[in-house]
């Protein structure tokens, strides 16, 4: 074998070794990639699809039953949304419509235009209410107090009592509907379109979000609402053989009632159920625990019972996973706005602090970040001494970012923390002279 053949044989051996090494590497690489892909698919399969608008709970995910068409859960104190599902889809609210009727009645009482003792004469329109819904069988000319009719509406969802109140306030149900829509516009309920006072009409529509907003407004402005919405039963007339039973089976007071104790939920004291064939079963509820009040809305549930079970899921989610956290105490000093300039004071500025606290519902155990997003203060020429302590002089906006990256914002007033007394004429004169020469000197320096 000559030298050329020996070299060729040696090269072929080396090539074979390299080929085997490359083949082995590729085989190992394919195994690793296959295992990695499998692990990736396994990890992906273990992730729960929470769906649109569904918030993930710590340690897992949270979803409502398939039968719910729309839902929302909010903090009653701030309106902060904790969960939502199709919350911006307008739907018939059915008898949840009566919350607007109740709100208007409460506002009339608050403004001294009605009293609870005002006697209402049942109109022909009210006495002619169709019998295919809840009612107390009013006859034309019957007289009952506003309070009795209100309770019949709030507890028994009585349609005839609702129309009796509506026609008393506005002359007719149609006139009252105009008032309902005017009120909705004033309150910022952009999706609400009312065509009746009772909710029997399928073309009355509103979103879950706006329904929750209405509930929030009622609870904030009319605390008497809960006094009536929490009544478990009520005998409308002395001669009635049975009392009306509250359609809200979740009332905490039902915990010892045989038929309802499976639905009773700790802290529930309102608000309103609703059903017509076009809407499915609806419920706006509210519950308070340890100083934290939540509002829930469930729309389009398939059964009378499921609307309560799904509401209980919402409340469990809220109370189990969130806590109220004060991130800024009242009367706190803002680092970059410790004082504001004023005019004609003994001093040229006055110390300021936050008027109220800044509180959010935050995930339990989650990390958080708080920052001052914006400050605004009035100019000195608008803040003329004397100025009392506690006088609003500006605002500060705080941003809170939770562990998931979601940002919440709240704006509070900046107020004076002490009285700013007016300066004496002597002090103000010398301050004016000093400022004049300071300005003059500055102008001269600028010439050079």
From TrEMBL:
It comes from the Bacteria. GO terms for molecular function: serine-type D-Ala-D-Ala carboxypeptidase activity. Residues 322-422 form the Peptidase S11 D-Ala-D-Ala carboxypeptidase A C-terminal domain. GO terms for biological process: cell wall organization; peptidoglycan biosynthetic process; proteolysis; regulation of cell shape. Pathway: Cell wall biogenesis; peptidoglycan biosynthesis. Keywords: Carboxypeptidase, Cell shape, Cell wall biogenesis/degradation, Hydrolase, Membrane, Peptidoglycan synthesis, Protease, Signal, Transmembrane, Transmembrane helix. Its EC number is 3.4.16.4. It catalyses: Preferential cleavage: (Ac)2-L-Lys-D-Ala-|-D-Ala. Also transpeptidation of peptidyl-alanyl moieties that are N-acyl substituents of D-alanine. This is serine-type D-Ala-D-Ala carboxypeptidase.
């Amino acid at each position: 074998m000559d030298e050329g053949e020996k070299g060729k044989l040696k090269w072929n051996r080396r090539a074979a070794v390299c080929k085997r090494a490359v083949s082995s590497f590729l085989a190992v690489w394919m195994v690793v990639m296959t295992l990695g892909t499998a692990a990736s698919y396994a990890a992906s399969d273990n992730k729960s699809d929470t769906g649109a608008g569904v918030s993930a709970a710590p340690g897992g995910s949270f979803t409502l039953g398939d039968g719910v068409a729309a839902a929302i859960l909010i903090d009653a104190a701030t309106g902060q949304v904790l969960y939502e599902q199709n919350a911006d889809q307008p739907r018939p609210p059915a008898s949840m419509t009566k919350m607007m009727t109740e709100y208007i009645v409460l506002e009339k009482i608050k403004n001294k235009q009605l009293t609870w003792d005002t006697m209402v004469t049942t109109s022909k329109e009210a006495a002619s209410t169709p019998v295919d819904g809840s009612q107390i069988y009013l006859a034309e000319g019957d007289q009952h107090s506003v309070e009795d009719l209100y309770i019949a509406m709030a507890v028994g969802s009585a349609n005839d009592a609702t129309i009796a109140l509506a026609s008393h306030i506005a002359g007719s149900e149609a006139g009252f509907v105009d008032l309902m829509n005017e009120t909705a516009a004033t309150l910022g309920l952009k999706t609400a379109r009312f065509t009746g006072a009772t909710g029997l009409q399928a073309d009355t529509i509103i979103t879950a979000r706006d329904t929750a907003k209405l509930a929030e407004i009622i609870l904030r402005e009319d605390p008497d609402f809960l006094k009536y919405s929490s009544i478990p039963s009520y005998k409308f007339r002395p001669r009635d053989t049975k009392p009306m039973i509250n359609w809200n089976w979740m009332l905490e007071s039902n915990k010892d009632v045989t038929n309802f104790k499976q639905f009773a939920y700790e802290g529930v004291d309102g608000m309103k159920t609703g059903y017509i064939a076009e809407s499915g079963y609806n419920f706006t509820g509210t519950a308070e625990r340890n100083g934290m009040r939540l509002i829930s809305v469930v729309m389009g549930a398939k059964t009378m019972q499921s609307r309560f079970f799904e509401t209980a899921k919402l409340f469990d989610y809220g109370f189990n996973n969130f806590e109220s956290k004060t991130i800024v105490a009242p009367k706190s000093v803002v680092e970059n706005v410790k004082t504001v300039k004023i005019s004609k004071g003994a001093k040229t500025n006055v110390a300021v602090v936050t008027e109220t606290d800044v509180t959010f519902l935050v995930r339990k155990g989650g990390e958080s970040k708080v920052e001052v997003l914006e400050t605004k203060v009035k100019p000195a020429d608008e803040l003329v001494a004397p100025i009392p302590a506690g006088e609003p002089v500006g605002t500060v906006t705080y941003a809170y970012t939770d562990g998931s990256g979601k940002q919440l914002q709240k704006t509070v007033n900046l107020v004076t923390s002490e009285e700013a007394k007016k300066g004496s004429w002597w002090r103000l004169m010398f301050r004016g002279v000093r400022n004049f020469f300071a300005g003059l000197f500055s102008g001269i320096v600028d010439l050079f």
